[in-house]
């Protein structure tokens, strides 16, 4: 049975199927580590949203994080049971603390704490080009899961070439895991 995707239009939501040869120009990158799986992409538009929906369905995505200004309507995604989180922050910048908290809360809720378990879901995350803000939040999640800042940058860049500008890489290098801060104690 063919899979149909919903496409939002200004007047209605209709079911359409992307042309079998239609492809995204900039393919989303899958980044996996332990029990987590992320799909990093550039920003969809209403005109190509069905192609992204096909990718979301293929990777069992139920959560999409948008860290840039909206470029598409969310009703088609919501009708498919995909929740969209709007957490925009400045291009080329690090995320503010409240967005980092919300992001890590979502990561924990979706993937849980069992690091031995294989991921059954994927969190899709995008910014305008899929090279800065979205990979930055993925790198933070990788650090929280145990990678060093250097390892998280390398893993992200291995899957998403050109990701993370110098300022964002410095932000990652300076980032300290919330978990490691909580677990350290001082004996006087």
TrEMBL record:
Q: Which family does it belong to?
A: Belongs to the protein-tyrosine phosphatase family.
> Does the keyword field hold Lipoprotein?
yes
Q: Which EC numbers does the record give?
A: 3.1.3.48
Question: Is-annotated flag, keyword Hydrolase?
Answer: yes
Known SMART domains for this protein? Answer: PTPc_motif (SM00404)
Which Pfam family would be a valid example here?
Y_phosphatase
A GO cellular component annotation here is:
cytoplasm
The reaction(s) catalysed by this protein are:
O-phospho-L-tyrosyl-[protein] + H2O = L-tyrosyl-[protein] + phosphate
> Where in this chain does the record put each Tyrosine-protein phosphatase domain?
27-184
One example GO MF annotation: protein tyrosine phosphatase activity
Segments spanning the bilayer are none
Q: Which PANTHER family match?
A: TYROSINE SPECIFIC PROTEIN PHOSPHATASE AND DUAL SPECIFICITY PROTEIN PHOSPHATASE
This one is known as protein-tyrosine-phosphatase
Span of domain Tyrosine specific protein phosphatases:
101-171
Q: From which source organism is this entry?
A: Linnemannia exigua
* Alphabetical keyword list: Disulfide bond, Hydrolase, Lipoprotein, Methylation, Prenylation, Protein phosphatase
Q: Which InterPro entries match?
A: Prot-tyrosine_phosphatase-like, PTP, PTP_cat, Tyr_Pase_cat, Tyr_Pase_dom, TYR_PHOSPHATASE_DUAL_dom
* Lineage of origin: Eukaryota, Fungi, Fungi incertae sedis, Mucoromycota, Mortierellomycotina
